[in-house]
Design brief:
single chain, mainly alpha, Four Helix Bundle (Hemerythrin (Met), subunit A), globular
Length: about 325
C-alpha cells in the first residue's frame, strides 16, 4: 500500500479511537451524575437502571477503543501510559459491572465511575495517543499475561476500595439515623449530608446489612491478591528473561512489593477480631493508595526527579 495511504489510514484510526475515548469519558461523567441521583432518590427505578446503563455504555465505548488500539499496533494496548490509563479504566468498569450484576450493589459504582473517568481524562489531557513501536524488552510472551493479570488485580482493588468508601458512607448514615453523634455534630451532618444522601428504609440500613456489605471487601481482596502475586512473580521471570536478573529493587518493583505487603497486612487483619474495624478499613485504603503510587506515582516521580528506572512508560 502507498505510504501516504497507510499514514492516512493510521491517522483516521487514531482520530476514531480518541473520539471513542472522549465519548467514554463523557458517559462516565453521566454515570457519576446518575449515581448521585440514585443516592438522592434510591427508589426511582430510572436512576437505578440508568446508573448501571451509563457505566455499561462507557465500558462498551472503551472496548472499541481497546480493540482499535490493538489492531492498529498489532500488540496488547498497554505499553504507554496513555494506553495503560485507558486499559485501567476499562478493567475497573468491567470488574465493577460483573460484581454489581452478581451482588446487586450499586453504591460503589459512583466511585468506580469517578476513578475510571479520571483515568480517561488524564489519558486525554496529559498523555500523547501516538502509537510507538514495541520496545525490545516488551517483545516477550510474558508481556500480555503479566500486564493483563496485574491490571486485573488493580481492577478488583479499585472495586474493593470503592466498596470500602461506600461502607463508610453507610455507617455514617446508619449512625445518623440512630442519633449516635453528639447533638451539635448530628445537626451539622443532617444539614450537610441528608440533602444528598437519604437515610432510612430506602437503603435498608441495618447493622447486619452493613456488616454483610463490608465483608465483600475481604472477598474482593482475597480474589485480587493471588493475581497481584502472579503479576509480581511473572514480572520477575520476565525481568530475568529480558535483563538477566529477577529483581533489581527498581522503584516500580519496590513499590509493587510495598503494595503486596499492604494488601497482605489487610488480609492478616481479617483473621484478628480486634483489627477488623477501623484498622482494616484504614489499611485497605492505604493499600489502594500504594497501588496508585505503583501504577502512576512512581513513573511520574522518577521522571520528575531523574531517578533511573527500567519501568518508565514510553
Amino acid at each position: 500500500m502507498d505510504p501516504e495511504a497507510l499514514l492516512a489510514r493510521d491517522a483516521a484510526r487514531l482520530a476514531t479511537e480518541v473520539a471513542f475515548l472522549r465519548a467514554a469519558l463523557f458517559v462516565y461523567g453521566i454515570a457519576v451524575v446518575v449515581y448521585i441521583l440514585h443516592f438522592i432518590a434510591p427508589r426511582v427505578r430510572a436512576f437505578r437502571a440508568g446508573s448501571t446503563g451509563a457505566l455499561f455504555v462507557a465500558a462498551a465505548l472503551q472496548t472499541v477503543v481497546i480493540a482499535l488500539r490493538w489492531v492498529s499496533k498489532g500488540a496488547p494496548p498497554f505499553q504507554s501510559l496513555y494506553e495503560s490509563l485507558s486499559f485501567f479504566a476499562w478493567t475497573a468498569a468491567v470488574a465493577y459491572l460483573v460484581i454489581e450484576w452478581r451482588r446487586s450493589v450499586r453504591i460503589p459504582g459512583f466511585f468506580v465511575s469517578l476513578i475510571a473517568g479520571g483515568a480517561c481524562l488524564y489519558a486525554l489531557l496529559g498523555q500523547s495517543p501516538e502509537i510507538k513501536p514495541l520496545f525490545p524488552a516488551l517483545q516477550s510472551a510474558w508481556f500480555f499475561w503479566h500486564v493483563a493479570i496485574a491490571f486485573g488485580s488493580y481492577a478488583v482493588f479499585v472495586v474493593a476500595f470503592s466498596v470500602e468508601l461506600s461502607y463508610l458512607i453507610q455507617v455514617l448514615l446508619w449512625k445518623l439515623e440512630r442519633r449516635e453523634f453528639p447533638a451539635p455534630v448530628w445537626w451539622l451532618l443532617r444539614i450537610v449530608v441528608v440533602p444528598f444522601f437519604r437515610v432510612g428504609a430506602d437503603y435498608g440500613l441495618t447493622e447486619d446489612n452493613i456488616s454483610r456489605f463490608h465483608r465483600s471487601v475481604h472477598q474482593l481482596v482475597l480474589f485480587g491478591f493471588p493475581m497481584l502475586t502472579f503479576g509480581i512473580m511473572s514480572g520477575a521471570a520476565w525481568a530475568n528473561e529480558a535483563w538477566g536478573v529477577y529483581w533489581q529493587w527498581d522503584p516500580k518493583e519496590t513499590w509493587s512489593l510495598i503494595t503486596w505487603f499492604a494488601f497482605a497486612l489487610y488480609l492478616h487483619t481479617r483473621v484478628r477480631p480486634t483489627w477488623r474495624g477501623a484498622p482494616s478499613t484504614l489499611i485497605v485504603i492505604l493499600a489502594f493508595l500504594c497501588m496508585v503510587t505503583t501504577f502512576i506515582g512512581v513513573s511520574w516521580l522518577a521522571k520528575l526527579f531523574g531517578v533511573p528506572s527500567l519501568h518508565l512508560y514510553g
